[in-house]
Design brief:
Blueprint: E1 24-32, E2 40-41, E3 45-48, E4 53-57, E5 71-75, E6 79-83, E7 89-90, E8 96-103, E9 110-115, E10 126-130, E11 133-137, E12 142-143, E13 148-155
Antiparallel strand pairs: 1-2, 1-3, 1-8, 4-5, 5-6, 6-13, 7-12, 8-11, 9-13, 10-11
């Protein structure tokens, strides 16, 4: 189930409303049944959101029998798209097996997150935000060159870090 986001924040120095452009974001992969004892936490990569694909992750080497599935991530002003250019399979099943995008801000960055069902082929059922972080759970789902996930976001007027 997608958890509704009704988030409010006290703003100190607002940026342009509704955009992720120019923000620093760290993208990582996490797998856990117990959040305090993760099975996998991949190396995070940090970039400034701009034009084109922000992340093109590939395998990092097995940790406890798990590795990163190759994924391409494009972040727009109010949209995130994920695709799987190589490989085919099914994600390991765990309470959480997915992606964490941590934007450098202390405020509640996301007011609303919705899956764009017309551009999404994956049956993602769990997406949530915590302050400046967005969690996307793909546990047990199939991936491959035809798999796509598109999220539309309402971005708050949070200050750039």
């Amino acid at each position: 189930m997608i958890r509704p986001l009704a988030l409010a924040a006290a703003l100190v120095s607002p940026v342009e409303a509704g955009t992720l452009e120019g923000r620093l974001v760290t993208f990582t992969v996490e797998t856990w049944d117990d959040r305090e004892a993760p099975l996998l936490v991949a190396r995070g990569r940090t970039v400034a959101v701009g034009q084109g694909t922000e992340f093109g992750l590939g395998p990092e080497g097995f940790t406890g029998g798990l590795d990163v599935v190759p994924v391409a991530v494009e972040i727009g002003p109010s949209r995130i798209e994920l695709s799987y250019p190589t490989g085919i399979g099914r994600f390991y099943e765990a309470q959480f097996n997915g992606y964490v995008l941590r934007f450098e801000t202390d405020c509640a960055l996301f007011e609303k997150v919705t899956v764009d069902s017309t551009a999404t082929t994956m049956k993602v059922t769990e997406v949530w935000a915590e302050t400046g972080a967005l969690y996307i759970n793909v546990s047990g789902l199939a991936y491959g060159p035809e798999a796509r996930l598109a999220l539309d976001l309402e971005v708050a007027d949070c200050p750039l870090s």
